[in-house]
Every structure is written in C-alpha cells, then in structure tokens.
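From the shared-data thread, chain only:
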Amino acid sequence: MFVAAGIAFLFFAGQALAKPITINWWHAMKGARGEVVETMIKAFNDSQSDYVVVGTYKGNYDETINAGVAAYRAKKQPHLLQAFEVGTQTMMLSGAIYPVFKLMKDKGYTIDWSGYLQPVLSYYMNADGNLMSMPFNSSTPVMYYNVDLFKKAGIPTPLSKTKPISWDELGEITGKLVKSGVAGGMVTGWQSWTQIENYSAIHNIPFATRANGYEGLDCELVINNPKVTNHVARLKTWADDKRFVYAGQKFQGPKAEFIAQKAGVYIDSISAIAQLQKAVKDFTWDVAPLPVESWMKEPQNSIIGGASLWVFNGHSKNEYKGVAAFLNHLSSPDMQMYWHKETGYFPITLKAYEILEEQGYYKENPL
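Structure, as tokens:
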C-alpha cells in the first residue's frame, strides 16, 4: 500500500514538475510593434502553464522568410513563421506547412471562419477555399500628412476621412508644400503595392489576368496599361519638381523623411500609426484615405497587405496542441482589439470589430 502510494506521489509530482512545451515563433515585428507582440505572447504564457511561446525577431520580411526556409532545409524550423503576403504562394506550394484549417480541426477547435474578415481570409486560402495560414497583421495603405506644414503652406486642414481628395488636388497640395520651403511634397513606401496594386484596385483596373490570379497560377501582369502608366508618368513629373521624392523601396526611408519633416505627405501602411505615435514628438500629423482620380466616381476598396502565420511541418502532436492554443489566443476578441488599437492593423474577426464599434472606438478614431 505504501509502495503504491509512493508511486502515485512520484507520478503526480512528476506531472507537476513537468516542463512546459516551448513553441518558437519567428517574426518580423520590431520597435513599437515588436513590443506589442511580446505583450501578446506574455498574455498567453501567463494564462496557462502547459506551453511557453518564445518570440524571436528575425529581421525584415525578406530576412524572416529566408531564415524560415533555411531553417526548414536544415530541419531546425520554428513552429510558427510570420511571412508577408508576397511570400504566400511560396509558402502555400512549399509542402513544408501544416495548413491552419487542418491544424485547428485536428486539435479540437471548431472555428466559424465566417466570423473572420473575408477579404483578409481570401488572401490566404487555397483554390478549395481552405485557410492555409492564420492572418495576423493585415493592413491597407493610407495617406499621412503633417498638419503643421499644411497650415504653414496655407493648405486647409483637416482633410476628410471619408471623401478622398483627387490626385490633381494632391498635386496642388504638394506644390504648395514645396513652395513653402518643404524639401519634398510627398514620399511613399512600398511603391508597387501603394502606387500600382492599390491604385489599380481602387480604380477598378485589372492587375493581372485570370481574375488577378485568383482563377489560376498561369496569370500574367497587365499593369502596363494607359491608366497605370499615366499615373507613374505623373509621379515622374512630380519627382522633377520635388512634389514627389523617392526615398527608398520599403518604408524605412520614406518614414524617416516624413518624421524629419522633409516631406509633408507620406503614403504607407495603416500600421505606421504605431511607429509615428512613438517617433513623432515635434509636430501634429493626421491620416486620410488614398487619393483617387477625378474621373473615378465610385472608388473601389483598397486591398490588404501585411502578413500571416504559417505552421511548419516536423513537430510533435503535443507541440501542435500548443501552436493551436496560441493561434486561438491571438484570434480572441481581447487580443484582436489590443493589436488593432496599438498598431493600426485590422482586427481579423468581426466580433472584435463589433465590440469596438459598440464602444464608440471608431467614432473617436474614424481612421
């Protein structure tokens, strides 16, 4: 009897002393957004004792996906990898991933995917409509502007948050900014995304054949059309007189120019809100929708950017339980509302959006 009791004690003591399972997440979030990521990880780790998620910043989007690919080839892959939307096809066709829809089902989560923002989900679905990765940081481009520089140049503020200005009007605005002494009128990050892909979407111009690639991989770009080429030619004209300044392909250079007040207008992801809130101390800035052409009477929606979380193959069943639990945590209304408020990225669930709307958040923060 004493022996049995001793064995039972050792068994339960062993269970109590069992180390939590480590879940590794490689991501591309640093600075203000990286701090938010760490807070979300800590909330999960503090909520239970079975798993410990370890977040690791692996560099920018390109560096992070390259690190993930190299790690998989070396059989040292993390459980989760944040990959930007440009890498979606690469990840989807790699044969290296555990599809999210299958993971969540296998681990006992009954998820109503209709409760998620469908334009976001569609980016990460396969041809059968199954979700391959979990949307995480979803964004769309907007136009930031320096209120103080606008006032100095005699430009009325605020700009409407519901009715976009025209590109012709932006040309006048940037001209006034330069004339008032600002080094450059406008900068923009991710030019192919903001000035070609989203420009095409807003103006209902095809970007590629096969329904912009949704109907098959054998599609071709059709961006060399008169409307898009005219827009690019306009930017070249603006560059000649400093109304537009090229400050780099991604976001670092354009953002730095805006923060240094060397440009009065900055077009980039809505997620720059968190970075600007932290970095800008000496001037007032605001946000407006992207401009539209004066001939476009009913502008279409812009499209998303950002990244999603991919689950790598090659881990144990118990580890995948932790991965599923963590993804479920990230999708909770509390986490989605926190992420949205702190970074500017969209909440990916309708529930989070509805709660914020009921609380009056969007009346106080219309854009």
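The chain has two domains: 2-139+305-364, 141-288.
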